[in-house]
Specification:
single chain, 270 residues, alpha/beta, Rossmann fold, five-stranded mixed β-sheet, 27% helix
């Protein structure tokens, strides 16, 4: 029952965003958001990728919201905020709560309504679920995309962008499927996203998930590696590999920087 309520809540989020942006023609997509872009990072060093995020956001003067809630101990100024400001970003706001009631208020979500970009930090993805899934905050993140903005995230902030959430168990990050914490923000539909693949030997960890949920597209990212999602296509960026599991029984397609992948057709592009 809880899973059904959560799923219905997410569908309601997408419906609300669709109604809010009904005046703007949208291209139908199967996996990626109809409008806006995603930056999905496999954790680790962001040196090559912050500039990508800023470019997608629209430059250093773009209004950016950083959500560090996945972190265990949230600092007054998160390191992502500090990194963006050090690169010259002039309008960065930190937004954090663990109170779902507060996350569901108009006052708390005010910075998101004017944001051009949202960054979701690393940590533990269940904290993002418990604080934001199905709330006004979740809806406003979707609204950023609907008006052509960008949502990015690394590690936990990558996995939460999928529809199916892996490693969501509060008990530990080695549990791939955790009842009660299996629903992500669904910015990428019909997907499951894993991260830190090369440094934590996770190359095959998605296979049990895909065996149980064969309709999902599995995406496994090395550290310092990202996919930039535009509609149903993505481009790999960074230092390592992105692996795409079209089905549980076949080897993944492994791509490096500059290569493109069709998320809907589940095949590499020329």
């Amino acid at each position: 029952m809880k899973t059904l309520r959560t799923l219905l809540g997410c569908l309601a989020c997408w419906s609300a965003v669709a109604l809010a942006s009904a005046a703007t023609p949208q291209v139908a997509t199967r996996v990626g958001p109809p409008e806006g872009k995603l930056l999905v990072v496999g954790g680790g060093n962001m040196t090559q990728l912050w500039s990508v995020f800023l470019e997608l956001a629209g430059g250093k003067d773009a209004p950016i919201v950083v959500i560090p809630t996945a972190t265990e101990n949230v600092e007054a100024t998160d390191k992502a905020v500090a990194a963006l400001r050090a690169l010259g970003a002039t309008h960065v706001t930190q937004l954090h709560t663990r109170d779902r009631k507060l996350a569901d208020t108009e006052e708390f979500t005010a910075p998101l309504r004017t944001a051009r970009a949202v960054w979701l930090t690393g940590g533990r993805q269940w904290r993002l679920v418990d604080a934001y899934l199905g709330t006004r905050t979740h809806r406003e993140i979707l609204a950023v995309l609907a008006r052509g903005g960008v949502v990015g995230g690394s590690s936990a902030g990558a996995s939460i962008q999928a529809s199916y959430l892996v490693r969501g168990a509060p008990e530990g990050n080695k549990i791939m499927m955790a009842p009660g914490h299996e629903q992500g923000f669904a910015l990428l539909r019909d997907t499951a996203i894993d991260q830190h693949v090369n440094t934590r030997e996770r190359a095959d960890d998605l296979r049990p998930v895909l065996k149980k949920h064969p309709a999902l597209l599995g995406i496994a990212l090395d550290e310092a590696t990202a996919i930039v999602v535009n509609g149903d296509e993505c481009t790999v960026a960074g230092a390592g590999r992105a692996r795409f599991f079209a089905n549980p029984g076949s080897p993944p397609v492994e791509l490096t920087a500059g290569a493109r992948y069709d998320l809907a057709a589940r095949s590499a592009l020329p």
